[in-house]
Amino acid sequence: MKALRLLGPNDLQLQDIERPKLKDGWCRVKVLRVGVCGSDISSIAGKLIFTRFPITPGHEFSGIVTETKNCQRFKTGMYVTANPIFSCGECEACKKGELNHCTQTEVLGVVSHDGCYAEEVAVPEKMLFEIPENVPAERGAMIEPVTVALTALNKACVKKGSKVAVFGAGNIGLVVIGLAKSLGADEVLAIDMIEDRLRIAKQMGADKTVIAKDLETSIEEYDSCYDCLIDGVGIENVMALMVRMVKPGGHIDVYGVPKGTYPVPVQAAFVKDVTISTSRLYGYDMSEAIRIVADENSIDFNPMITHRVSLEEFSELSKKIVNREVDSIKVILEVNDK
Question: I want to staple 152 with a disulfide (CB 3.0 to 4.6 A). Which of 35, 57, 202, 255 is the partner?
Answer without folding.
Answer: 255
